[in-house]
Amino acid sequence: MSKNIPLRPPHELFTDNQWQAIFDEGQNILVSASAGSGKTTVLVRRVIEKIKSGTDIDRLLVVTYTEAAAREMKERIQAELQKALTQETDPQQKQHFVRQLSLLPTASISTLHSFCLSVIRRFYYLIDMDPVFRLLTDETEMLLLKEDVWDDLRERLYEQEEESFYQLTSNFSNDRTDDGLTNLVFSLYEFAKANPDPEEWLIDLPKSYQIDGDIGESSLYQDTLKPPAIESLQMTIDRYEKMLELSVGQEKMEKVAALAQKELDWTKQFCQRLSDNELEAAYQLTEVLGFDRFPTVRVPELKEVMEQIKALREQNKKTLKEITASLFTLAPKKMKEIMDQAAVVVRNMAEVGKQFMTDYGNEKLRKGLVDFNDLEHFTLAILSNREGSEWLPTEASTYFRSKFDEVLVDEYQDINRLQESILFWLRRPENNEGNLFMVGDVKQSIYSFRLADPSLFIEKYTRYGQQEDGKRIVLAENFRSRSNVLDFTNLVFEQLMDERVGQIPYDKDAQLVNGFHQFLEADDYTTEVLIYEKKKSQEVEDGFLLDPELQIEDKTEGELHMTALKIRELIDRGYLIYDKKLKESRPVRYQDIVLLTPTKKNNLTILDIFKRFDIPLQVNDAQNYFQATEIRTMISLLQLIDNPYQDIPLAAVLRSPMVGLKETELVNVRLAKKEGLYYEAFLAFNKQTKPSNNVQKTIDKTRAFADQLELWRELARRVSLSELIWKIYQDTAYLDYVGGMPAGQQRQANLYALVDRAANYEKTSFRGLFQFIRFIEKMQEKDKDLAEPVILEDENAVRVMTIHASKGLEFPVVFLLDMTKEFNLSDLKERCIFDDRLGAGIRFLEEETRILYDTLPYLALKQIKMNKLLSEEMRKLYVGLTRAEQKLILIGSYNDREAAWKEWGKAKDVETLVLPQESRLQGKSSLMNWIGMTLIRHNDAEKFNDFYQASKVTELQNHPGRFTISFMDDQQMETGFSMLQQSADIETAPVQSSEKEDQVLLTRGLKRLNFDYPYQLAAQTTNYQSVSEIKRIFEDPDDRSIGKLEIGDSQARSTQGIVHRMASQELSRPSFLQEVQQPAAVEIGTATHHLLQLIDLSKEPTLESLQALLDELVSQKLIAEKTGSRIDLTKILDFFQSELGRMLLAHPDRVRREQPFSMLLDAEEIIKDYPEKSDDELLIHGIIDGYIELDEECILFDYKTDYIRNVNDPSELEKIVKRYRGQLKLYKQALSLTIDKPVTHVYMVLLLAEIIIDMVTGEMIPIKK
Q1: Which of 515, 527, 521 is nearest to 578 (CA)?
Q2: Which residues are paired to 1253 by β-bridges?
Q3: I need a surface site. Which of 33, 89, 350, 1240 has the fewest CB within 10 A?
Q4: Does the pLDDT of residue 623 top 70, yes or no?
Q5: Is the pLDDT of residue 1050 over 60?
């Protein structure tokens, strides 16, 4: 029973519910604390009030989620105790407070893992455990240990030659590797160990495959598959009835009405069969399911209604296909047969899982290692003991239950079932005397990858809300954010979140309430939705030349340019925010702004783009540590010290500053022994007795390195790894060298981190240089970074972090980036899906037919998993939105505004407040699609929506949530960027002083500031250039033999004087990461070149042969299907009818295609105003489309797929010639150096324009005569 709660004094600022959460006791209490509701303050105050009432702090167990939270909790409790001590007048109470301060350092305020460690240290003897062990905390060490154990177990299982293991391997592997089985075993282990009894969980796995009666009576069907199917079918029926309502009685629409009625009747019948659990009859209906062609009605007046009806019908077709696919991959009878066979595979899988769990546990025991999961299981074993079928408390459990007056758990929503079991044996078992106090917010449960189980919170939330077994207290007031942020968040989640998606209803108890009223009223804090239009930007590309600083390659860069412009707008116009510390408004600073991203993968791109806008940035995980040049060099050197017979590491080190060989020198080394390993050539090169003068310098360097390498190899056998690495730094001065490079401080930090990693590695169970290299390789696979960023916390810079990293933090202005990124549902494509409660659902491979079948447990778990994944995405959105104090800006991209409104319009006819489950559970969706669907029925959306009329929902008509929607393409961004540059020019203009003395000082200062470093161009230029990168430099008419690159003032200004490469500073995204729906022109061009490279020139090409080749490339995933469909094969065929094309077909054995080249040129030949007579060189590399090598001459040709608006306009063609003249001159020069024959013709083949231009003579030859 709850005790009497003291009255709240007037000076206390706590709300009634907070006050209750501070003082209520006598039963288990769950505090559901919404974002920004002050839960930590409440938790600290509850501890203080316990102490004031006479409880010693060591009689409280406070469990936090992180070590940082535990430290903060102790610090805040200490501050409150010291404050209470200074205010207290009673000597006895003062003494009590002093005692608490002395107990605080050893009080049980820690993470659950730290507490488990203390339990084991005290009661290890209860489980016969050796108390001397090392905590295994490094994920890479754990993974290597698992792999070693699994390799041994797998070898033994193969040697036993048992059919059951071969079947298991076949089911989860492919023809090339059994990595699928390895991943399965590791995942199986993780899920099993998250349960209180892993072995029992494994034993129970086959149970879900053993169905005695009909499948329709099984719990998997009744509880998991049936409910969502019936709901979706009912919505489908409603849509068909809407189609009938629009079509019945309308002239010319009789066929439409008949079609709707026919499909409605089928849907009703199908729904009834599923409701009655008659799966065989339902399956028979799916066998006759077909969709007739939609009738055509050519009546202009009916166009709008026909489009509406057609959209409804398309949605119905999609839904019905999805339902039948989710329920009936097989006939019910066949499904039972498959499940009987699959049960055998699952039983074998469980057996292998048990063997691995035992072997891995024994190996850790042998090496004296304990991981975090072991801590929990050992603690549970210490606290509880099984006698028969009953679990009983041990003496340790009894001890802790009597020791702790209360157990307080922070972030309870992130607890898993194993941890819940531990808490059970620590708290009092009687609910009417409960002493468990739990605080959390299930809407912020975003750690499923750590196997957190939010259902534990939800179960108690429901039970305690009904006053069963405990009490629920809701903290809804938000003391963090402006009402505009809270209202917008409520607007979104009132429509998105419920028990099915999100796993908790977003009702009045869950809604955010404004609790901070000091913010000044203003209209400038409305949430903004900013959309980048991809397709529109691509369409203007040819006719609209972007500023070179603003080259946008893909939708990610477009979104980031838009974001940067918005940030500069806020900063430049002095956007006002309220400073809670100063208690007044002030202009926003960079450090007030945060960018929240779904992943870290775009961090390097963000750095690149924000540099152009002069926006300082703080990114903790911007760079893959192992891709840093200095680390790659060091890893290569360590590989050589371990084994010098490795070509790539050896070439990398020789080319690095440690040895400093040029590429021509590397060639000379190889020529010493043309066959065999490069190290053998290296040794042969060093043995030369009479080298030529031009080789002697190289030999001096290579011999010195060979001697040094031998010393290091000998040293590696005597000293520790960290000492070896440090000795390398000393011998090579490599630390000093990288310190002088751009970002030198960070590079040095990276090298220091490598020393630290080596020292830490030597404390692990692995030893030796070879194992360390393997260790590093495994870290690279896991993309783990080592180096800490060299950044000050209070730096005035925009911060970038993931949504996960932002949890618990708050920022005045929040940008949510990449919101149109499709949800990651890759887990649903695995052959096995795990669930900590329901076990495992597998796809079964039938040996005879080699067909993969989706079993019923797989279908059920796939649906459950998808629901969980999307629920977590929804909770991540909640976390992201609630980080904002004052301003929220959401960033995404669509092809164009019509595409955006089309996606959002899927909810336009919904008349209920909460969106239908099928709308929210679409796998190919995104956070922005969800956001858009929640906005279109609000009054504010009407200002931006020119496409359709959305339903009016009563609850949304007067909703206080406010927002704006803006669309932006490249042209608009160019305008904004130009305005920024103009304002920068104005700001940097020299100030005119009327005083003569001031003018003298100004002149002297400017002279010093404007000092011209004589080698500035060399400092700004990399010595490695591709032809495609320097192509644009040749468009300048001021070209001597080839062309010159001019580094303009605007470029220097925008990059703060640092230009690393004469090109766009962004790397284009790999094709598999691109999310554009329509292929860009560059993709079509690349695909066309690929096709031309593979055409068989020995026979006459035909349209059929070209199409067959294209289909083959598409089927092999070498060309994307959408890209392939955009290639104009007739243009290629026409080319082969031209004189040049016929020449290629006439000499197929003399045609060379896709020929790479590299050549060294003096920098002064390439870069305008580069100091003459300098020794600086640039390495130019590229690929020549092709050439014909005849007896006396060479003919070079290059394909272009540029779009030309008007082929008959000479100026248009001249632009193309001007664009590529320098590039083709380089090709000609490279070919002339390679082949000792004159290049008599250089043909540029404009495929789309059907013109061939001879770049030597200037002649323009039509392809079609």
Answers
A1: 521
A2: 1244, 1260
A3: 89
A4: no
A5: no
Q: For tokens 């719990």, what's the residue?
A: 219
Q: What is the pLDDT of residue 320?
A: 93
Please, are residues 34 and 478 in contact by the beta-carbon 8 Å criterion?
A: yes
| Predicted confidence (pLDDT) per residue in 528-561, tens digit | 999 999 876 555 544 444 555 566 778 899 999 9
Distance between CA 922 and CA 1078 in Å, rounded?
Answer: 21
What pTM was computed for the model? 0.72
* DSSP labels, 946-961: -S-PPPP-HHHHT---
Sequence letter at residue 911: E
User: Given CA atoms 128, 130, 136, 141 in this order, what sign does their dihedral have?
Assistant: negative
What is the structure's pLDDT at 976?
74
Return all residues near 604 (Cβ < 8 A) that are at least 6 apart: 622, 623, 1067
In the chain the domains, ranked by start, together with CATH numbers, are: 16-133+371-475 (3.40.50.300), 215-331 (no CATH), 527-622+794-830+873-968 (3.40.50.300), 625-781 (1.10.486.10), 1071-1262 (3.90.320.10)
Distance between CA atoms of 329 and 801, rounded to whole angstroms?
42
What is the 8-class DSSP label of residue 619?
E
Q: CB within 8 A of 660, min separation 6: which ones? A: 701
DSSP 535-547: HHHHHTTTTS---
- 421: its two tokens: 């079991």
Q: Which two tokens stand for residue 326?
A: 């989710």
CB atoms within 10 A of CB 265: 11
Q: What integer pLDDT is reported at residue 618 of this predicted model?
A: 85
38's torsion region: left (phi>0), alpha (psi -120 to 50) or beta? left
Alpha carbon separation from 477 to 35, 480, 519, 955, 960 (Å, rounded)? 9, 9, 15, 21, 17
- Length of the chain, in residues: 1265
Residue with tokens 């995933």: 1117
Separation between Cα atoms, residue 99 and residue 54, nearest integer Å: 11
971-1009 exposure pattern, b = at least 16 Cβ within 10 A, e = fewer: ebbbebbeebeeeeeeeeeeeeeeeeeeeeeeeeeeeee
Mean pLDDT computed over every residue of the chain: 85
Residue 935 identity (one-letter amino acid):
L
The HSE-up count of residue 796 (CA atoms within 13 Å, CB side) is: 5
- Report the SS3 class of residue 529: strand
d(CA 70, CA 600): 27
The tokens describing 1229, both together, are 């020069």
86 exposed, middle or buried (CB, 10 Å; 0-12, 13-18, 19+)? exposed
How is residue 301 annotated by DSSP? G
CB contact at 8 A, 1254 and 1243: yes
Binding residue ranges for ATP = 33-40
Residues making up the binding site: 33-40
What CA–CA distance (Å, rounded) separates 1101 from 450?
A: 57
Q: Is the pLDDT of residue 853 over 90?
A: yes
> Is the predicted pLDDT of residue 991 greater than 50, yes or no?
no
pLDDT digit string, tens, across residues 459-503: 999 999 888 889 999 999 999 999 999 999 999 999 999 988 888
Which residue in 1180, 1156, 1186, 1181 sits closest to 1089, CA to CA? Answer: 1186
Closest CA relative to residue 1075, chosen from 555, 560, 609 = 555
Gyration radius of the chain over CA positions = 35
CA distance 543 to 566: 26
Question: Is residue 863 a contact partner of residue 228, using CB atoms and an 8 Å limit?
Answer: yes
Burial 198-221 (b: 16+ CB within 10 A, else e): beebbeebbebbebeeebbebebb
CA distances 690 to 538, 780, 1048, Å, are 61, 44, 49
Which residue shows structure tokens 């035909």? 1102
Structure tokens at 144: 């290597």
Residue 227 burial class via C-beta count within 10 angstroms: exposed 0-12, middle 13-18, buried 19 and up: middle
Q: How many CB atoms lie within 10 A of CB 43?
A: 24
